[in-house]
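Reopening this one. Same input as before:
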Amino acid sequence: MPFAPRPRPRGGRWRRAALAITAAAVVLAVSGSAGSPPVGHLLLVGITADPRAPDGVCVIPVSGHASCRPSDAAQARWLASGLVPGVNPAQRATAVRALLDLRLLTRPDGAVAAGWYPGWKYAWPRDSSWVAAALTVTGHSETALAILRFIARVQPASGIWAARYQLSGDGPVRDGRPTELDADGWFPWAVWFWYDAQPGSGAARRDLTALWPAVRRAAAATASLLGSDGLPPVSMDYWEDRVSSVTLGIAAPLYTGLRAAADLARSLGFAADASRWSAAARRLGHGIQASFGATDYQRTPDGSSGADAAVTFLGPPFSAAGSGVRQAVASAARQLTLPNGGIVPGSAWAGDPDEAWTPETGFFALYDAASGNRAGADRWLSWLVAHRTAAGSLPEQVNADGRPASVAPLGWTDAIALLAMTALRHPLPMP
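Same output, byte for byte:
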Protein backbone atom coordinates (compact mmCIF):
# COMPACT_ATOMS: atom_id res chain seq x y z
CA MET A 1 0.00 0.00 0.00
CA PRO A 2 1.44 3.39 -0.79
CA PHE A 3 2.02 4.86 2.65
CA ALA A 4 3.15 8.46 2.65
CA PRO A 5 5.72 9.51 5.25
CA ARG A 6 4.07 9.84 8.63
CA PRO A 7 5.15 9.84 12.30
CA ARG A 8 4.79 6.05 12.60
CA PRO A 9 6.25 3.18 10.51
CA ARG A 10 4.15 1.90 7.79
CA GLY A 11 3.21 1.26 2.58
CA GLY A 12 -9.40 0.08 -22.92
CA ARG A 13 -9.83 3.22 -24.95
CA TRP A 14 -9.44 6.17 -22.73
CA ARG A 15 -7.51 9.08 -24.20
CA ARG A 16 -8.01 11.76 -21.60
CA ALA A 17 -6.77 11.66 -18.04
CA ALA A 18 -5.07 14.19 -15.83
CA LEU A 19 -3.82 14.60 -12.32
CA ALA A 20 -4.66 17.09 -9.62
CA ILE A 21 -3.74 17.36 -5.95
CA THR A 22 -6.29 17.71 -3.18
CA ALA A 23 -4.83 19.47 -0.20
CA ALA A 24 -7.65 19.94 2.32
CA ALA A 25 -8.92 17.48 4.92
CA VAL A 26 -12.46 17.96 6.20
CA VAL A 27 -15.10 16.03 8.05
CA LEU A 28 -18.52 16.01 6.43
CA ALA A 29 -21.34 13.79 7.60
CA VAL A 30 -23.31 12.53 4.63
CA SER A 31 -25.44 9.62 3.56
CA GLY A 32 -25.47 7.66 0.35
CA SER A 33 -27.58 8.39 -2.67
CA ALA A 34 -30.94 6.73 -3.12
CA GLY A 35 -30.62 3.01 -3.58
CA SER A 36 -27.10 2.88 -2.12
CA PRO A 37 -26.04 1.90 1.40
CA PRO A 38 -25.04 4.74 3.71
CA VAL A 39 -21.48 5.91 3.41
CA GLY A 40 -19.32 7.42 6.11
CA HIS A 41 -17.58 10.70 6.49
CA LEU A 42 -15.62 12.39 3.74
CA LEU A 43 -12.16 13.12 5.13
CA LEU A 44 -10.75 14.64 1.95
CA VAL A 45 -12.20 16.88 -0.69
CA GLY A 46 -13.63 14.86 -3.55
CA ILE A 47 -12.52 14.55 -7.14
CA THR A 48 -14.61 14.22 -10.28
CA ALA A 49 -13.82 14.38 -13.96
CA ASP A 50 -14.79 17.39 -16.03
CA PRO A 51 -13.31 17.93 -19.51
CA ARG A 52 -14.06 21.67 -19.20
CA ALA A 53 -12.10 22.12 -15.98
CA PRO A 54 -8.33 22.73 -15.82
CA ASP A 55 -6.55 19.44 -16.49
CA GLY A 56 -9.93 17.74 -16.81
CA VAL A 57 -10.34 17.50 -13.03
CA CYS A 58 -12.85 19.18 -10.73
CA VAL A 59 -12.40 19.44 -6.96
CA ILE A 60 -15.54 19.07 -4.84
CA PRO A 61 -15.40 21.66 -2.03
CA VAL A 62 -16.39 21.14 1.58
CA SER A 63 -19.98 22.06 0.81
CA GLY A 64 -20.23 19.02 -1.41
CA HIS A 65 -21.54 21.14 -4.28
CA ALA A 66 -19.05 21.33 -7.13
CA SER A 67 -19.16 24.22 -9.53
CA CYS A 68 -18.27 21.84 -12.32
CA ARG A 69 -19.81 18.53 -13.20
CA PRO A 70 -18.41 15.55 -15.08
CA SER A 71 -19.51 14.83 -18.59
CA ASP A 72 -21.97 12.01 -18.01
CA ALA A 73 -21.96 11.16 -21.69
CA ALA A 74 -18.17 10.85 -21.84
CA GLN A 75 -18.08 8.71 -18.72
CA ALA A 76 -20.90 6.52 -20.00
CA ARG A 77 -19.11 5.98 -23.29
CA TRP A 78 -15.92 4.97 -21.52
CA LEU A 79 -17.71 2.59 -19.17
CA ALA A 80 -19.66 1.10 -22.08
CA SER A 81 -16.39 0.35 -23.88
CA GLY A 82 -15.60 -2.20 -21.16
CA LEU A 83 -17.31 -4.21 -18.44
CA VAL A 84 -18.67 -3.19 -15.04
CA PRO A 85 -18.35 -6.12 -12.61
CA GLY A 86 -20.49 -6.79 -9.57
CA VAL A 87 -23.24 -9.23 -8.65
CA ASN A 88 -25.65 -6.72 -7.10
CA PRO A 89 -26.48 -3.03 -7.51
CA ALA A 90 -24.28 -1.90 -4.61
CA GLN A 91 -21.25 -3.71 -5.99
CA ARG A 92 -21.88 -2.37 -9.48
CA ALA A 93 -22.18 1.19 -8.18
CA THR A 94 -18.88 0.74 -6.34
CA ALA A 95 -17.30 -0.73 -9.48
CA VAL A 96 -18.45 2.22 -11.57
CA ARG A 97 -16.86 4.68 -9.16
CA ALA A 98 -13.68 2.57 -8.91
CA LEU A 99 -13.34 2.44 -12.68
CA LEU A 100 -13.87 6.17 -13.05
CA ASP A 101 -11.40 6.85 -10.25
CA LEU A 102 -8.79 4.70 -12.00
CA ARG A 103 -9.53 6.62 -15.16
CA LEU A 104 -8.67 9.82 -13.32
CA LEU A 105 -5.57 8.41 -11.63
CA THR A 106 -4.05 7.22 -14.92
CA ARG A 107 -2.22 9.64 -17.18
CA PRO A 108 -2.34 9.19 -20.97
CA ASP A 109 1.22 7.79 -20.98
CA GLY A 110 0.31 5.09 -18.46
CA ALA A 111 1.65 6.67 -15.26
CA VAL A 112 -0.74 5.81 -12.42
CA ALA A 113 -0.90 7.97 -9.32
CA ALA A 114 -1.49 5.93 -6.19
CA GLY A 115 -3.74 8.72 -4.93
CA TRP A 116 -4.36 12.43 -5.38
CA TYR A 117 -2.88 13.64 -2.11
CA PRO A 118 0.75 14.80 -1.69
CA GLY A 119 2.87 11.82 -0.76
CA TRP A 120 0.67 9.52 -2.83
CA LYS A 121 0.91 11.34 -6.17
CA TYR A 122 3.63 9.02 -7.45
CA ALA A 123 3.64 5.81 -9.45
CA TRP A 124 4.30 2.65 -7.43
CA PRO A 125 5.18 -0.19 -9.86
CA ARG A 126 3.34 -2.58 -7.55
CA ASP A 127 0.10 -0.61 -7.44
CA SER A 128 0.31 0.17 -11.16
CA SER A 129 0.66 -3.53 -11.98
CA TRP A 130 -2.55 -4.29 -10.11
CA VAL A 131 -4.33 -1.42 -11.86
CA ALA A 132 -3.21 -2.82 -15.23
CA ALA A 133 -4.68 -6.21 -14.28
CA ALA A 134 -7.96 -4.65 -13.14
CA LEU A 135 -8.34 -2.60 -16.32
CA THR A 136 -7.51 -5.67 -18.38
CA VAL A 137 -10.21 -7.77 -16.79
CA THR A 138 -12.77 -4.97 -17.17
CA GLY A 139 -12.11 -4.60 -20.89
CA HIS A 140 -9.80 -1.57 -20.98
CA SER A 141 -6.78 -3.40 -22.36
CA GLU A 142 -5.36 -0.42 -24.24
CA THR A 143 -5.05 1.60 -21.05
CA ALA A 144 -3.64 -1.43 -19.27
CA LEU A 145 -1.00 -1.78 -21.97
CA ALA A 146 -0.04 1.89 -21.58
CA ILE A 147 0.45 1.31 -17.86
CA LEU A 148 2.66 -1.73 -18.47
CA ARG A 149 4.72 0.25 -20.96
CA PHE A 150 5.26 2.99 -18.41
CA ILE A 151 6.43 0.52 -15.76
CA ALA A 152 8.78 -1.09 -18.28
CA ARG A 153 10.12 2.31 -19.32
CA VAL A 154 11.18 3.31 -15.81
CA GLN A 155 12.80 -0.04 -14.99
CA PRO A 156 16.56 0.31 -14.40
CA ALA A 157 19.13 -1.96 -16.03
CA SER A 158 19.38 -4.01 -12.84
CA GLY A 159 15.79 -5.13 -13.32
CA ILE A 160 14.87 -4.04 -9.79
CA TRP A 161 12.45 -1.13 -9.53
CA ALA A 162 12.59 1.62 -6.96
CA ALA A 163 9.70 1.87 -4.52
CA ARG A 164 8.00 4.67 -6.49
CA TYR A 165 8.53 6.96 -9.47
CA GLN A 166 7.76 10.49 -10.58
CA LEU A 167 4.60 10.62 -12.69
CA SER A 168 6.67 12.32 -15.38
CA GLY A 169 8.71 9.13 -15.70
CA ASP A 170 11.88 11.14 -15.12
CA GLY A 171 13.12 8.83 -12.41
CA PRO A 172 12.49 7.38 -8.96
CA VAL A 173 11.44 9.40 -5.95
CA ARG A 174 14.65 9.90 -4.02
CA ASP A 175 13.46 10.01 -0.44
CA GLY A 176 15.87 7.52 1.06
CA ARG A 177 13.57 4.53 1.12
CA PRO A 178 15.11 1.33 -0.27
CA THR A 179 13.83 -0.68 -3.21
CA GLU A 180 10.84 -2.99 -2.85
CA LEU A 181 11.44 -6.32 -4.57
CA ASP A 182 7.75 -7.19 -4.87
CA ALA A 183 7.40 -5.22 -8.12
CA ASP A 184 9.66 -7.81 -9.77
CA GLY A 185 6.88 -10.29 -9.13
CA TRP A 186 3.82 -8.15 -9.74
CA PHE A 187 4.97 -6.76 -13.09
CA PRO A 188 5.57 -10.12 -14.84
CA TRP A 189 2.24 -11.30 -13.44
CA ALA A 190 0.44 -8.20 -14.76
CA VAL A 191 2.01 -8.63 -18.22
CA TRP A 192 1.04 -12.31 -18.20
CA PHE A 193 -2.48 -11.41 -17.04
CA TRP A 194 -2.81 -8.83 -19.82
CA TYR A 195 -1.49 -11.17 -22.52
CA ASP A 196 -3.74 -14.03 -21.39
CA ALA A 197 -6.77 -11.80 -22.05
CA GLN A 198 -5.75 -10.89 -25.60
CA PRO A 199 -7.28 -12.65 -28.62
CA GLY A 200 -3.98 -14.11 -29.82
CA SER A 201 -3.49 -11.49 -32.52
CA GLY A 202 -0.20 -10.57 -34.08
CA ALA A 203 -0.50 -7.12 -32.57
CA ALA A 204 -0.74 -8.56 -29.05
CA ARG A 205 2.32 -10.70 -29.66
CA ARG A 206 4.25 -7.67 -30.90
CA ASP A 207 3.21 -5.73 -27.82
CA LEU A 208 4.33 -8.61 -25.61
CA THR A 209 7.65 -8.77 -27.46
CA ALA A 210 8.18 -5.08 -26.68
CA LEU A 211 7.46 -5.69 -22.97
CA TRP A 212 9.55 -8.83 -22.85
CA PRO A 213 12.94 -7.24 -22.03
CA ALA A 214 11.49 -5.75 -18.83
CA VAL A 215 9.88 -9.07 -17.88
CA ARG A 216 13.15 -10.86 -18.56
CA ARG A 217 15.19 -8.43 -16.47
CA ALA A 218 12.74 -8.74 -13.57
CA ALA A 219 12.72 -12.54 -13.64
CA ALA A 220 16.49 -12.76 -14.05
CA ALA A 221 16.98 -10.40 -11.10
CA THR A 222 14.64 -12.50 -8.94
CA ALA A 223 16.32 -15.78 -9.85
CA SER A 224 19.77 -14.35 -9.17
CA LEU A 225 18.74 -13.15 -5.70
CA LEU A 226 17.47 -16.46 -4.34
CA GLY A 227 19.64 -17.78 -1.53
CA SER A 228 20.62 -21.29 -0.53
CA ASP A 229 17.30 -21.58 1.31
CA GLY A 230 15.44 -20.72 -1.90
CA LEU A 231 14.23 -17.39 -0.50
CA PRO A 232 14.93 -13.82 -1.69
CA PRO A 233 16.94 -11.42 0.48
CA VAL A 234 15.52 -9.03 3.05
CA SER A 235 13.57 -6.21 1.41
CA MET A 236 11.10 -3.57 2.41
CA ASP A 237 7.66 -4.81 1.36
CA TYR A 238 4.20 -3.32 0.99
CA TRP A 239 4.14 -2.32 4.65
CA GLU A 240 6.94 0.05 3.68
CA ASP A 241 8.90 -0.22 6.90
CA ARG A 242 12.37 -1.62 7.38
CA VAL A 243 12.53 -5.32 8.25
CA SER A 244 15.26 -7.71 9.38
CA SER A 245 13.88 -10.82 7.67
CA VAL A 246 12.30 -11.68 4.35
CA THR A 247 8.50 -11.46 4.49
CA LEU A 248 5.58 -13.11 2.74
CA GLY A 249 4.86 -9.76 1.11
CA ILE A 250 8.05 -10.23 -0.91
CA ALA A 251 8.39 -14.00 -1.29
CA ALA A 252 4.84 -14.67 -2.49
CA PRO A 253 4.71 -12.06 -5.30
CA LEU A 254 8.13 -13.17 -6.58
CA TYR A 255 6.89 -16.76 -6.70
CA THR A 256 3.96 -15.67 -8.85
CA GLY A 257 6.18 -13.50 -11.03
CA LEU A 258 8.66 -16.27 -11.82
CA ARG A 259 5.88 -18.62 -12.91
CA ALA A 260 4.28 -15.87 -15.01
CA ALA A 261 7.62 -15.07 -16.65
CA ALA A 262 8.19 -18.75 -17.43
CA ASP A 263 4.75 -18.93 -19.09
CA LEU A 264 5.50 -15.84 -21.17
CA ALA A 265 8.91 -17.25 -22.16
CA ARG A 266 7.21 -20.40 -23.45
CA SER A 267 4.70 -18.29 -25.38
CA LEU A 268 7.54 -16.45 -27.11
CA GLY A 269 9.59 -19.56 -27.75
CA PHE A 270 12.38 -18.85 -25.25
CA ALA A 271 12.72 -22.38 -23.93
CA ALA A 272 15.93 -21.79 -21.97
CA ASP A 273 14.43 -18.83 -20.10
CA ALA A 274 11.26 -20.79 -19.42
CA SER A 275 13.25 -23.69 -17.99
CA ARG A 276 15.46 -21.39 -15.90
CA TRP A 277 12.60 -19.51 -14.31
CA SER A 278 10.44 -22.57 -13.78
CA ALA A 279 13.35 -24.06 -11.86
CA ALA A 280 13.77 -20.84 -9.88
CA ALA A 281 10.05 -20.82 -9.11
CA ARG A 282 10.29 -24.39 -7.82
CA ARG A 283 13.22 -23.42 -5.59
CA LEU A 284 11.33 -20.44 -4.24
CA GLY A 285 8.17 -22.48 -3.77
CA HIS A 286 10.06 -25.09 -1.81
CA GLY A 287 11.72 -22.34 0.21
CA ILE A 288 8.36 -20.78 1.06
CA GLN A 289 6.95 -24.15 2.05
CA ALA A 290 9.95 -25.12 4.17
CA SER A 291 10.37 -21.76 5.91
CA PHE A 292 6.99 -20.07 6.08
CA GLY A 293 4.97 -23.29 6.07
CA ALA A 294 6.75 -24.40 9.20
CA THR A 295 5.29 -21.40 11.02
CA ASP A 296 1.74 -21.54 9.59
CA TYR A 297 2.68 -19.00 6.91
CA GLN A 298 3.20 -16.10 9.27
CA ARG A 299 4.83 -12.85 8.21
CA THR A 300 8.44 -14.01 8.65
CA PRO A 301 10.01 -17.47 8.48
CA ASP A 302 10.73 -17.58 12.22
CA GLY A 303 7.06 -16.98 13.01
CA SER A 304 7.87 -14.26 15.53
CA SER A 305 5.86 -11.56 13.76
CA GLY A 306 2.51 -13.27 13.52
CA ALA A 307 -0.15 -13.20 10.82
CA ASP A 308 0.15 -11.13 7.64
CA ALA A 309 -2.61 -10.34 5.14
CA ALA A 310 -0.07 -11.18 2.42
CA VAL A 311 -0.72 -14.86 3.09
CA THR A 312 -3.57 -14.44 0.59
CA PHE A 313 -0.92 -14.00 -2.14
CA LEU A 314 -0.19 -17.73 -1.80
CA GLY A 315 -3.69 -18.65 -2.94
CA PRO A 316 -6.05 -17.94 -5.84
CA PRO A 317 -5.88 -16.16 -8.20
CA PHE A 318 -2.08 -16.32 -7.93
CA SER A 319 -1.45 -19.90 -6.85
CA ALA A 320 -3.41 -23.02 -6.03
CA ALA A 321 -3.77 -23.13 -2.25
CA GLY A 322 -2.91 -26.31 -0.37
CA SER A 323 -4.56 -27.19 2.92
CA GLY A 324 -1.85 -25.40 4.91
CA VAL A 325 -2.35 -22.14 3.05
CA ARG A 326 -6.13 -22.41 3.32
CA GLN A 327 -5.89 -22.89 7.06
CA ALA A 328 -3.40 -20.02 7.37
CA VAL A 329 -5.65 -17.64 5.42
CA ALA A 330 -8.63 -18.52 7.60
CA SER A 331 -6.54 -18.06 10.74
CA ALA A 332 -5.17 -14.72 9.52
CA ALA A 333 -8.67 -13.46 8.76
CA ARG A 334 -9.76 -14.27 12.32
CA GLN A 335 -6.69 -12.66 13.87
CA LEU A 336 -6.63 -9.52 11.73
CA THR A 337 -10.33 -8.58 11.61
CA LEU A 338 -10.98 -5.48 13.73
CA PRO A 339 -14.18 -4.59 15.59
CA ASN A 340 -15.03 -2.17 12.76
CA GLY A 341 -15.12 -5.19 10.43
CA GLY A 342 -12.05 -4.44 8.34
CA ILE A 343 -8.57 -5.92 8.26
CA VAL A 344 -5.38 -4.64 9.88
CA PRO A 345 -2.23 -5.43 7.84
CA GLY A 346 -0.74 -7.87 10.32
CA SER A 347 -0.25 -8.93 13.93
CA ALA A 348 3.01 -7.02 14.11
CA TRP A 349 1.67 -3.90 12.40
CA ALA A 350 3.23 -0.88 14.10
CA GLY A 351 0.55 1.58 13.01
CA ASP A 352 -2.80 2.37 14.58
CA PRO A 353 -4.10 -1.00 15.83
CA ASP A 354 -7.72 0.13 15.50
CA GLU A 355 -7.49 1.35 11.90
CA ALA A 356 -8.50 -1.02 9.09
CA TRP A 357 -6.87 -0.90 5.67
CA THR A 358 -8.92 -1.34 2.54
CA PRO A 359 -6.20 -3.01 0.41
CA GLU A 360 -5.79 -5.81 2.96
CA THR A 361 -9.54 -6.22 3.33
CA GLY A 362 -9.64 -6.45 -0.45
CA PHE A 363 -6.96 -9.18 -0.41
CA PHE A 364 -9.31 -11.45 1.50
CA ALA A 365 -12.23 -10.54 -0.77
CA LEU A 366 -10.15 -11.47 -3.82
CA TYR A 367 -8.88 -14.68 -2.26
CA ASP A 368 -12.39 -15.80 -1.30
CA ALA A 369 -13.89 -14.83 -4.65
CA ALA A 370 -11.16 -16.61 -6.62
CA SER A 371 -11.43 -19.66 -4.32
CA GLY A 372 -15.17 -20.02 -4.88
CA ASN A 373 -16.14 -18.83 -1.39
CA ARG A 374 -18.90 -16.51 -2.52
CA ALA A 375 -20.25 -15.85 0.97
CA GLY A 376 -16.84 -14.79 2.25
CA ALA A 377 -16.17 -12.55 -0.74
CA ASP A 378 -19.61 -10.95 -0.45
CA ARG A 379 -18.95 -10.21 3.22
CA TRP A 380 -15.63 -8.43 2.58
CA LEU A 381 -16.96 -6.59 -0.45
CA SER A 382 -20.06 -5.47 1.46
CA TRP A 383 -17.75 -3.96 4.07
CA LEU A 384 -15.81 -2.06 1.40
CA VAL A 385 -19.05 -0.86 -0.20
CA ALA A 386 -20.36 0.37 3.15
CA HIS A 387 -17.21 2.36 3.93
CA ARG A 388 -16.85 4.51 0.84
CA THR A 389 -16.52 8.27 1.02
CA ALA A 390 -19.30 10.72 0.29
CA ALA A 391 -18.19 10.75 -3.34
CA GLY A 392 -18.49 6.95 -3.46
CA SER A 393 -14.73 6.37 -3.62
CA LEU A 394 -12.80 3.71 -1.76
CA PRO A 395 -10.46 5.24 0.86
CA GLU A 396 -7.13 3.88 2.03
CA GLN A 397 -8.19 3.38 5.66
CA VAL A 398 -11.24 3.15 7.90
CA ASN A 399 -10.91 4.32 11.49
CA ALA A 400 -12.24 2.76 14.67
CA ASP A 401 -15.53 4.62 14.29
CA GLY A 402 -16.05 3.12 10.84
CA ARG A 403 -15.32 6.36 9.01
CA PRO A 404 -13.18 6.54 5.86
CA ALA A 405 -9.75 7.95 6.63
CA SER A 406 -6.55 8.99 4.87
CA VAL A 407 -6.71 9.43 1.08
CA ALA A 408 -9.52 8.64 -1.32
CA PRO A 409 -9.61 7.29 -3.90
CA LEU A 410 -6.77 4.80 -3.51
CA GLY A 411 -6.00 3.19 -6.85
CA TRP A 412 -4.70 -0.07 -5.38
CA THR A 413 -7.93 -0.70 -3.48
CA ASP A 414 -9.95 0.15 -6.58
CA ALA A 415 -8.00 -2.46 -8.54
CA ILE A 416 -8.29 -5.16 -5.88
CA ALA A 417 -12.04 -4.62 -5.51
CA LEU A 418 -12.60 -4.76 -9.27
CA LEU A 419 -10.65 -8.02 -9.54
CA ALA A 420 -12.60 -9.51 -6.64
CA MET A 421 -15.96 -8.53 -8.10
CA THR A 422 -14.95 -9.96 -11.47
CA ALA A 423 -13.85 -13.22 -9.84
CA LEU A 424 -17.37 -13.63 -8.45
CA ARG A 425 -18.68 -13.85 -12.00
CA HIS A 426 -16.00 -16.01 -13.64
CA PRO A 427 -12.63 -17.54 -12.74
CA LEU A 428 -9.56 -15.37 -13.06
CA PRO A 429 -6.54 -16.89 -14.86
CA MET A 430 -3.69 -18.29 -12.79
CA PRO A 431 -0.10 -18.64 -14.02
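So the earlier flakiness isn't reproducible anymore. For the record, The beta strands are 28-29, 41-42, 46-49, 57-60, 356-357, 397-398, 404-405.
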